[in-house]
Amino acid sequence: MFLTGAGLKGRILVAGGDGFIGSALTAYLRRAGETVTATTIERDQPDKGLVHFDITTDINENAVLRDPYEAAVICAAITGLDDCARDPVATAAINVDGVSKLAKHLLARGTYVVFLSSNQVFDGSHAFPSTTDPVSPVTEYGRQKARAEQAIAGFGGPSLVLRLTKVLGGNTGLFEQWARTLREGKEINPFSDMYMAPVLLSAVLSVLRLAMDRGTTGILQLSGDRDISYAEIAYLLCERIGADSGLVRPVSWRDVRPAGDIFPERTALDGTRLRVEFGMFSPESRWVIENTFSDTW
């Protein structure tokens, strides 16, 4: 559909262009000379290059969708696990119903659609689930992502699901808070049994651009090479800033979180397809973490 390195030939829609990934993708594509319409659920923000679009409203009546798009990336979502668990109806209205309606509308008009999904579609019971493994979500957020994936696949047309693990790059407030606390000589209590297999935001942008250039369809997974616990990250931070590692006092999330909470024990995904088709290997999780630490903390 697209020619690698030649640039896309038409307008690109980034739904959720004010979010962490959406805003970075919008800036990345515009720097490359692409024509991008980036949306926000808030009021129009012309100074930021964003137009208002409520994904829960009647798709066919929305002015944003009157123009044709060659490609669309659906970043719009409520991503907080707690938010989804607390209000599954309201969050599903966006994460499932709104996303599905938007994708169906775009696909019916011949638009190539990329949907950002998550490792949360798996229960974490076995290591490195592949793109062909059946989904098995245990969180409400994961269930919503799995439902949206299934709906989009059923519409037909050129679409890609990009499953991501934890994405880092500019959103390291927790690590910064830890660094301040450690430098004050106070202890921190990271979870010993909560994990991530992180990837850098820059890698996500590269994969998205390659996928759009090539018109890749089906499912792709981008993940760190292994799971790393929050406690291990805290010890790495101590090494980086020269803090006393004795100030790290790991705890179990099961002793802190409300009863009934559950989180996947494994988050890393199989990246075979990405390696074979894109020549990209899963980044080393420790390297990703260390590259997010700031020297100024």
Task: Give structural notes.
With about 300 residues, this protein is an alpha/beta fold. It has a domain at about 10-170 and about 200-225 and about 270-285: NAD(P)-binding Rossmann-like Domain (Rossmann fold), CATH 3.40.50.720. It has 9 helices and 11 strands. The protein has helices at about 20-30, 80-85, 90-110, 140-155, 175-185, 200-215, 230-240, 270-280, 285-290; strands spanning about 10-15, 35-40, 50, 70-75, 110-120, 160-165, 165-170, 195, 200, 220, 230. It has a 7-stranded parallel β-sheet with strand order 3-2-1-4-5-6-10, sandwiched between helices. Strands 7-9 form a two-stranded parallel sheet. Helix 1 links the parallel strand 1 and strand 2 (about 35-40). The chain is globular and about 60 Å long.
Give a short summary of the structure.
35% of the residues lie in helices and 14% in strands. The chain has 9 helices and 11 strands. It has helices at 20-31, 81-86, 88-108, 140-154, 173-183, 201-214, 230-241, 272-278, 285-290; strands at 12-15, 36-40, 50-52, 71-74, 112-118, 159-164, 167-168, 195-196, 199-200, 218-222, 228-229.
Radius of gyration: 20 Å
Strand-residue proportion: 5-15%
The major β-sheet equals: 7 strands, parallel
Number of helices: 9
Provide the succession of SSEs.
Answer: EHEEEHHEHEEHEEHEEHHH
**Overall CATH architecture of one domain:** 3-Layer(aba) Sandwich
Alpha-carbon distance between the two ends: 45 Å
Helix content: 25-40%
User: Please, what is the average pLDDT?
Assistant: 93
Classified in CATH, the superfamily of one domain is: NAD(P)-binding Rossmann-like Domain
Instruction: Give the uncertain stretches in residue-range form.
Output: 1-6
CATH topology of one domain: Rossmann fold
Please count the beta strands (DSSP E, at least 2 residues each): 11
Categorize the overall geometry. globular
Order of strands, widest sheet: 3-2-1-4-5-6-10
- Judged by helices, strands and strand pairing, the structural class is alpha/beta
* CATH class membership of one domain: Alpha Beta
